[in-house]
């Protein structure tokens, strides 16, 4: 396959173009800072996007709408468990991952036992998680432990730590998808569930693992985001609902399922941040910025579809 | 229990009745003209939005931009429609046409509706923010009068819900074009083979969704008397839940307009019911989710029993 045919290429081209246009305005000044900010903020979108990508790979109708609520719940509970005490960062991460496991299992129980469409199951469940977060948060703003906050906002060798965590998780997913049986099973289930089942793939186990994976990723993102922004807020996950779906699709993962694309999610996450900063630096107001973001998303989807037809 | 499978509409009706009975039991004073109006007042825009979502689900798509669209309509209504009615009407008409065009484009280019509407939600949200950067505006007087009218015996909210249900039932279930539209959801290819222009049908379904979205936004402003750019964002998820609660399905063109209206009423009532339970406000959102799960579980129990019988 030639480079030009790689589905992830376009999101990276778009991200690079947005970067170049922004830097062109400032004549090269601030390029480093912009790249740094894009990596930091893009990392959160990429982590939740990776999870959403796995679910979307399962095929049409599979999407997880509980990501924002899971992020809020895990951030809230983890910070509450840590209570700003030093040396509790790993314990907090453990709490966050447990939250992710719990919400993922609950989501899948609704989907599997009650045969609910995933959209409705994760939507209804997310309302419960949201209430749980409100109830346990009570408007308190607990600061993360100093060490953890330093880690989340800090950098190693010039690269933001959150981006390194995101890259590590991406690598893990990439290896799982490309090199493990589980990844093959996931792709097979997404391409044709019935055929996969007849071929002996344990499709329900694959689906369960996928729905747990997405919430664990969301929980980790929530934990990091709460540490990054100095506390959990009840609306901290809100923007990641649409964002998680957008980065998956812009990244070149097929909405019809059965095809994943890890690098594309990163390109799209960087792009989503860069396009906003580009429009910002050209002086666009909030309204214009949103309209253009929406039109660009649709433009990319149309471009991707014509490419598909041409091939 | 064949009854429930035969009449898809029964379960939503029963859920609403049970919830209503429980509400009256908890708070007998709600059982009055004024009480019922208060309980269901905000249901009118939600019911309209749910019908709009139903039009999209009817043709096997899903609309993630509906909440943003209703917010935009609310902003237009509270500004342009109030200040210069002619311009306001033109803008609203243009919005409906946009929706129809969207449906045609989605079908013609074979785009995933979930992503296109996702993108459109940014566009509508941005336009709304552009029109009304901070909450404000005012409801046109006639709209305010219409939404607060007090018909004898039956409260306005109930009247409006019945009218919406009857009109959409006639349109979607009884009329010829409604049947063809549901056919598009059932099997678009056969409809095409039968000689119908599917692109135009999809445009029509989306156009209808846009029209009901416009009504929803106007009704909302009539009730709240002002608007802001985020006023109806939660309608996206509420409307999807309402359609499913009302017995609709995501695929196959299986929708029920009466059920959708009842689903919207149930969701609205759920919120009021919980406040009567003296449940802490923290749990109000969660309990809506729990009620949603309960009703859908009930539906599953009945359909499964039928399958065994």
The largest sheet of chain B, given as strand count, sense and whether it forms a barrel, is: none
Q: Order of helices and strands of chain A, N to C? A: HHHHHHEEHHHHHHH
Assign the structural class of chain A, choosing from mainly alpha, mainly beta, alpha/beta, alpha+beta, or little secondary structure. Answer: mainly alpha
The share of residues in helices of chain A is over 70%
> Mean pLDDT score of chain A, rounded?
82
Q: Write the CATH fold name of chain A.
A: ABC transporter involved in vitamin B12 uptake, BtuC
Taking all Cα atoms into account, the compactness measure Rg of chain B is 19 Å
Secondary-structure element string of chain B: HHHHHHHHHHHHHHH
Characterize the overall form of chain A. Answer: globular
Which fold does the CATH topology of chain B refer to? ABC transporter involved in vitamin B12 uptake, BtuC
> Per CATH, which architecture of chain B?
Orthogonal Bundle
Distance between the termini of chain B: 9 Å
Structural class label of chain B: mainly alpha
Query: How many domains make up the coordinates of chain B?
Result: 1
What portion of residues of chain B is helical?
over 70%
Number of strands of chain B: 0
Q: What is the architecture of chain A at the second tier of CATH?
A: Orthogonal Bundle
What is the typical, i.e. mean, pLDDT of chain B? 85
Keywords (chain A): Cell membrane, Membrane, Transmembrane, Transmembrane helix
GO cellular component, one term (chain A): plasma membrane
Pfam family, one (chain A): BPD_transp_2
Transmembrane segments (chain A): 34-56, 89-113, 158-177, 208-228, 240-259, 290-310
């Amino acid at each position: 396959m030639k480079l030009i045919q790689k589905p992830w290429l376009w999101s990276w081209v778009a991200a690079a173009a947005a970067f170049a246009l922004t830097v062109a305005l400032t004549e090269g000044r601030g390029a480093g800072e912009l790249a740094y900010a894009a990596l930091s903020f893009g990392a959160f979108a990429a982590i939740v996007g990776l999870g959403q990508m796995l679910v979307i790979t399962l095929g049409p109708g599979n999407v997880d709408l509980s990501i924002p609520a899971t992020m809020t719940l895990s951030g809230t509970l983890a910070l509450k468990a840590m209570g700003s005490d030093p040396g509790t960062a790993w314990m907090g991460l453990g709490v966050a991952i447990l939250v992710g496991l719990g919400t993922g299992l609950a989501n899948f129980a609704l989907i599997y036992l009650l045969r609910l469409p995933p959209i409705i199951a994760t939507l209804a469940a997310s309302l419960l998680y949201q209430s749980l977060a409100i109830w346990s948060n009570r408007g308190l703003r607990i600061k993360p432990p100093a060490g953890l906050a330093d880690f989340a906002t800090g950098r190693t060798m010039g690269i933001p730590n959150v981006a390194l965590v995101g890259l590590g998780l991406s690598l893990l997913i990439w290896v799982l998808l490309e090199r493990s049986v589980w990844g093959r099973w996931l792709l097979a289930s997404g391409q044709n569930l019935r055929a996969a089942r007849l071929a002996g793939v344990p499709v329900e186990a694959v689906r369960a693992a996928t729905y747990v994976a997405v919430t664990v990723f969301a929980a980790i993102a929530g934990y990091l985001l709460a540490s990054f922004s100095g506390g959990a807020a009840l609306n901290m996950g809100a923007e990641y609902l649409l964002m998680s779906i957008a980065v998956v699709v812009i990244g070149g993962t097929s909405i019809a399922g059965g095809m994943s694309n890890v690098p594309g999610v990163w390109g799209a996450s960087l792009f989503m941040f860069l396009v906003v900063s580009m429009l910002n630096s050209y002086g666009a107001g909030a309204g214009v910025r949103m309209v253009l973001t929406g039109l660009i998303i649709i433009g990319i989807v149309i471009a991707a579809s014509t490419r598909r037809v041409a091939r | 229990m064949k009854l429930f499978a035969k009449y898809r509409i029964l379960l939503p009706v029963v859920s609403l009745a049970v919830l209503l009975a429980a509400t009256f039991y908890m708070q007998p004073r709600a059982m009055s003209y004024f009480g019922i109006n208060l309980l269901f007042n905000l249901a009118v825009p939600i019911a309209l939005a749910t019908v709009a979502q139903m039009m999209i689900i009817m043709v096997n798509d899903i609309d993630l931009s509906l909440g943003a669209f209703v917010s935009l309509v609310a902003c237009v209504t509270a500004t342009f429609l109030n200040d210069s009615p002619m311009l306001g009407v033109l803008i609203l008409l243009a919005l409906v046409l946009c929706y129809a065009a969207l449906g045609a484009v989605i079908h013609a280019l074979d785009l995933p509706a979930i992503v296109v509407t996702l993108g459109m939600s940014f566009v509508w949200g941005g336009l709304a923010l552009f029109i009304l950067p901070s909450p404000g505006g005012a409801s046109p007087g006639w709209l305010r009068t219409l939404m607060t009218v007090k018909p004898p015996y039956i409260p306005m909210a109930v009247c409006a819900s019945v009218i919406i249900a009857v009109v959409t039932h006639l349109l979607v279930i009884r009329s010829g074009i409604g049947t063809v539209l549901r056919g598009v959801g059932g099997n678009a290819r056969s409809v095409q083979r039968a000689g119908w222009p599917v692109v135009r049908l999809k445009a029509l379904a989306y156009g209808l969704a846009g029209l009901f979205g416009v009504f929803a936004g106007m009704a909302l402003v009539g009730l709240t008397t002002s608007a802001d750019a985020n006023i109806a964002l939660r309608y996206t998820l509420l409307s999807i839940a309402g359609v499913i609660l009302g017995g609709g399905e995501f695929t196959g063109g299986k929708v029920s307009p009466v059920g959708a209206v009842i689903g919207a009423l149930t969701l609205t009532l759920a919120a009021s019911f919980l406040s009567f339970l003296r449940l802490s406000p923290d749990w109000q959102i969660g309990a809506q989710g729990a009620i949603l799960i309960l009703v859908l579980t009930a539906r599953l129990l009945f359909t499964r029993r039928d399958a065994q019988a």
